[in-house]
Amino acid sequence: MILFPAIDLKDGQCVRLRLGDMEQATVYNTDPAAQAKEFEDQGFEWLHVVDLNGAFAGQSVNGAAVESILKATKNPVQLGGGIRTIAHIESWLAKGLARVILGTVAVRDPALVIEACKTFPGKIAVGIDAKGGKVAVEGWAEASTLGVIELAQKFEGAGVAAIIYTDIDRDGVLAGINWESTLQLAEAVSIPVIASGGLASIADILRMTKPDAARLEGAISGRALYDGRIDPEEALTVLRQARERAA
Questions:
Q1: Catalytic residue among 8, 51, 167, 204, which?
Q2: Catalytic: 129?
Q3: Residue 44: its pLDDT value, please?
Q4: pLDDT at 146
Q5: Where are the domains positioned within the chain?
Q6: Does CATH place domain 2-246 in 3.20.20.70?
Q7: CB under 8 Å to 69, separation ≥6 — which residues?
Q8: Is the pLDDT of residue 203 over 80?
Q9: 7 Cβ partners below 8 Å, 6+ apart?
Q10: Hey, which of 62, 129, 139, 214 has its CA 20 to 30 A from 79?
């Protein structure tokens, strides 16, 4: 069970949005590379990065910030936001990303995701962002008619490394993870699921250690870490002890 600290990039800075609204952004650090190193020093083993401008623009906008993060940390980094072509995927992986997250293109062109999984095995994750149970695209600005499980099942057997499931209605408001929907998704597919959106307190970390959550790969935390609502050492200790018990 992995706790992924999040760096969301807007205009080259680390921010957190409220309910996916670019106009409701709080800046937490003007130096993304320093933030990445701080997370590594705190004991985190992965890093989740999103190019928010890129998600809206359909192409990388915060590339320089991402490259500075890759230079600053030894931890594997997964990146989403505006990555929509095989060439773009290849370019980012060549720069040292561990995993590329495909969101909008997974809805618009599922065949591209399947092709990418074959070309770059183990390197492709699918980001499914949902509002009211329906998948949202284009940086959450546009709703589709697709259901979350319906989209996820399109990629069964394709080699997707993980599905990152975000409940937009909870993102950035510290309402707690939508465990019901997240676990329903995890039960509906064999692909590992990462929970995202709303992680609020150590109670969510403890919830990650329950038997029914064992099938999850982990969860992403943003605002709760930045606001100090979760102590990194305590959270990582809880998860490590759960792993040791399971072993």
A1: 8
A2: yes
A3: 98
A4: 81
A5: 2-246
A6: yes
A7: 7, 32, 33, 36, 47, 49, 77
A8: yes
A9: 14, 32, 35, 36, 39, 47, 48, 49, 50, 69
A10: 214
Whether pTM exceeds 0.90: yes
* Nearest-angstrom CA–CA distance, 235 and 167: 22
The angle at the Cα of 39, spanning 34 to 40, to the nearest 5 degrees, equals: 95
Q: Are 28 and 9 in contact (CB under 8 A)?
A: no
Q: What is the mean pLDDT of residues 47-51?
A: 96
Which helix H or strand E contains 111, and what residues bound it?
helix 110-119
Q: What are phi and psi of 207, to 5 degrees?
A: -65, -30
User: 222: which 2 tokens?
Assistant: 């943003």
Secondary structure letter of residue 69 according to DSSP: H
Quick one: which H or E segment has residue 87?
helix 86-94
Rg (CA), the chain: 16
**8 carries an active-site annotation:** yes
Residue 104: pLDDT band (50, 70, 90) is confident
The pLDDT tens digits of the residues spanning 167-191 come to 877 665 567 898 999 999 999 999 9
The pLDDT of residue 142 is above 70: no
pLDDT at 169: 73
93 CB contacts (<8 Å, ≥6 apart)? Answer: 100, 120, 123
Tell which phi-psi region holds residue 2, choosing left (phi > 0), alpha (psi between -120 and 50) or beta: beta
Choice among 51, 109, 129, 204 that is catalytic: 129
Angle, alpha carbons 16-160-243 (nearest 5°): 70
